[in-house]
Fold this protein.
Amino acid sequence: MRTILQGKAGSDILLLGNEAIARGALESEIAIATTYPGTPASEIGDSIARVAPDVGVYFEYSVNEKVALEVAIGASLAGLRAITSMKHVGVNVAADALLSLSYMGIDGGLVLVTADDPSCHSSQNEQDNRYYSRIASLPLLEPSNPQECYEMVKIAFELSEKLSLPVIIRETTRIAHMAGIVKVGEIKKNSRTGMFDRERQYILLPAVARRKHAELLQKMDVARRISESSELNKIFQIGKKSKWGIITSSAGFNYAMEVCKDIPLDIEILKIGFSHPLPEQKIASFLKDKDKVLVVEELEPLLENDVRTIKEREGLKTEILGKATGHFSALYEYTPDIVQSAVECVFLGKRPEAERIPASAPDLPVRPPIMCPGCPHSATYYAVKIATKGRAIFPNDIGCYSLGAVAPYKMGDTMLCMGSSIGIAEGLSKSLEDPIIAFIGDSTFYHGGMPALANAVHGGHKMMVIILDNGTTAMTGHQPHPGSNVNAFGESAPALHLEKVIEGFGIDIVRVVDPYDFKNTVNAITEELEQKALSIIIARRACALLEMAERGKILGRRRTIDQEKCKKCGSCIDGLGCPAISRQDNIYSINEILCIGCGVCNQICPHSAIGVKK
Amino acid sequence: MRTDIFLAGVGGQGILSFARVLGVLGLMRKMNVVIGETHGMAQRGGSVTATVRYGDVYGSIIGIGKADLLVGFEPLEAARYARILSPKGTAIVSTSPIVPYSISATRGKYPETQDLIGILRNRGNMVIAFDANEIAEKVKFILTANSALLGAVASTGKIDAQLEDFRSAIKKTVPRKAKENLAAFDLGYEIGRKVAEEQKITDSGKKK
Ligand code: SF4
Ligand code: SF4
């Protein structure tokens, strides 16, 4: 197992971008680190969690991103250094705090890492969180590789204390999940004692806020001067001096470098690492002696628009190319091939290839993600399908169980953001006669579902909420949540009691079912549907992956299909949908490497054809 | 100088651990190394890819037609990414299929393994195809299948490292079951060497 503590000062170690961020934080005397797990940010928190007790850091998986940021703010106001990390859409949750925090100011260094997900590898959108640096008026750093992830965290802490502002570091999936060699320094434990200065005004009453806004603008002027002379904004010359240039940041820089070296071109590449406030003078002087400059940035044309503004203001003739000229798209992440075709088109006059060739062949059978063999969610979904005959509207939520939206269950009519299934269900239940069944995971319920449930009780909404309680935050790597009886370090911790929490809302009957007990699960759902009230069902069974990891073995004896008894009805595949079962040439069989022996298929087979493997 | 390796398989097949062994190898050889990993949703039984790049590289993505090696942990996934291979590249493919649930669900048919391998062969690439699970069974430890694939990777000579470097990278990354993994590695290496030799014979036969 890699650990971010390995490697003495000055040595080279192999780190994931996210691990490099964690290492940089541990070398910056942090006292507190918080997060809510979310791909592609999760490994930042996970790798700090593994070592936090050894290095005297308080670490927590907070209940959601807003609370994660607020806990970090608390530490900062006590003069200590803190880091908080989250996926891009997590910043939306934290935004209420963040956008006023820039007014309020901080004391100890505070760094917020946002991990964006161009191409939506594991997300519901591909929003460009560089916008947050603009809307909140905060400094923004953008690393391109693990070494920079590591260095920029250290720089961000210094910058944050110099400006009394939080600093945002924005990475993307390709940077977060890229491993590379990092030259590390020394781990530094926090040496400060917390102290809260009551004379400083951290209270944003209107009169204070008006004054603080003016202060913020002054701070950003200072930040602009720092950006102008920052080493993070740097020119790389490839080949001979030329009148061609590229301005780029983040992953775009990597592709631009490789492509221009491979062709090879004589060109200068201005890499923007400190991207808000922009080093406008540096950019202006870069443009001055260029005929053509291509802007290479994924997603929104933020840099490109600013470069155009600078060009206009300076009255320059340089031709600026990028998204506005149709050389790049604002969609999806880039690849070396995409950048190559734009570079060749702009500088070598080659016609861009009409279609971008995808790396994967389109004519082979696809293999989309699916729920794991033996996943309790599969059993729950199938039980709901039988109880409802599929006749209901199913708002769904964010987690592994989002996969309930696809075949064979097709029980995800909406999936928007963390916790939204319950609120949307309320609106639907007031608008439709159909039964409404909302699905939500346990971690997601604590994160964002609780206020919506309070609303459902008070509003008298008639609907069913099924909480898929597998005791963990499974999708992102099994992090604990407030309902878990262990904390991030595996120590025992007070757990919220889910039934009591819900009863506390004034809901008397909370049914708890075990999806591995299939018949009872179907019965409970059928009975509750008849209530036509607000009913809550907790489908409780530990995540199969986690359970196996804890037990060190599979859950039970592997199952097998008796070909003589099998009537080929398809219930195991088209109903339960366990991926360990396959159907080839109408022969049903169980893959013995994949089967974990959960014992659900043998309960649902109407012809008793499935039994334990001898 | 640059060596690009593309890894393709199914979530849960240990592709990230495989990439890490190659990463440790690079670190030991003092080569620049960049690894691209897949995390999150795709790991749930979906198509999973990773990259390992040595030498003069910046990002983690390998361009189409640029990979020197394609390691397929499953035949359908190997074929899916055939076009990532350079014309001179070599594919190493484990031949035990994992039928995607979606094929069963749509009453489709998993392609013939020979046809999948054929997609790679027809592009003119050298293909080292064998059942890595079978080797794992031979050494009586199922998790060694990937070490057999690594042995075949070593046999191609495309990575600038000695056999002993590979072996110590394995010892470093899987110290507990090193013996079994090294045994599988050796078997994979032998298979790779044989295939390369046969290929040479047929190639020279063609030339005559
Ligand atoms: S549910 Fe039972 S009888 Fe029906 S196809 Fe599956 S194994 Fe055969
Ligand atoms: S016991 Fe049946 S349902 Fe459970 S994992 Fe095995 S094949 Fe799938």
Remarks:
- Chain B has one domain: 3-207.
- The domain at 3-207 of chain B is CATH 3.40.920.10 (Pyruvate-ferredoxin Oxidoreductase; domain 3).
